[in-house]
Amino acid sequence: QVQLVESGGGLVQAGGSLTLSCAASGRTFTMGWFRQAPGKERAFVAVISSSGTITRYADTVKGRFTISRDNAKNTVYLQMNSLVPEDTAIYYCAAGALITNSPASYGSWGQGTQVTVSS
Q1: How far apart, in whole angstroms, are the C-alpha atoms of residue 68 and residue 6?
Q2: What is the 3-state secondary structure (H, E, C) of the chain?
Q3: How far apart are CA 106 and CA 65, in angstroms?
Q4: How large a percentage of the chain has pLDDT more than 70?
Q5: Which of 39, 89, 98, 110 has minimal CB crowding within 10 Å?
Q6: Paired residues of 66 in beta bridges
Q7: pLDDT by residue (tens digit) across 44-88?
Q8: Least confident interval from 12-16, 24-28, 55-59, 71-75
Q9: d(Cα 19, Cα 57) in Å, to the nearest integer?
Q10: Using CA atoms, how far apart are residues 41 and 98, in angstroms rounded to an integer?
């Protein structure tokens, strides 16, 4: 099972930007980003195919967030722009085999990184 480590979270003002990284211990296929706010279920954010040619986004982040990957580095990124307080959550990366927004389809998860957006 591949090991995933997220980084890049932090505190940012509304309207600001952050870039999250997810380093994998080996080759991965489909990679997804999810987030979980206090008292809420884990929610899909974005997914990218193994080649990077297919991406999907949640409606809440479309046009503001960009998922990308560097397979030579076994790393996936989430560029987050125009952040709003509602984006505050723990962000997790996950590795799976299918291009899907269902958390149940991902077999490996990172420990998460906190993103806090102040108003």
Answers
A1: 14
A2: CCCEEEECCEEEECCCCEEEEEEECCCCCEEEEEEECCCCCCEEEEEECCCCCCEEECCCCCCCEEEEEECCCCEEEEEECCCCHHHCEEEEEEEECCCCCCHHHEEEECCCEEEEEEC
A3: 21
A4: 100
A5: 39
A6: 79
A7: 999 999 999 999 999 999 999 999 999 999 999 999 999 999 999
A8: 24-28
A9: 16
A10: 21
With 0-12 / 13-18 / 19 or more C-beta atoms within 10 angstroms meaning exposed / middle / buried, residue 73 is exposed
pLDDT digits (tens, 9 = 90+) for 29-38: 999 999 999 9
Return all residues near 41 (Cβ < 8 A) that are at least 6 apart.
none
- What percent of the chain shows pLDDT beyond 90? 97
Structure tokens at 78: 């989430």
Q: How far is residue 4's CA from residue 34's CA, in Å, rounded to a whole number? A: 13
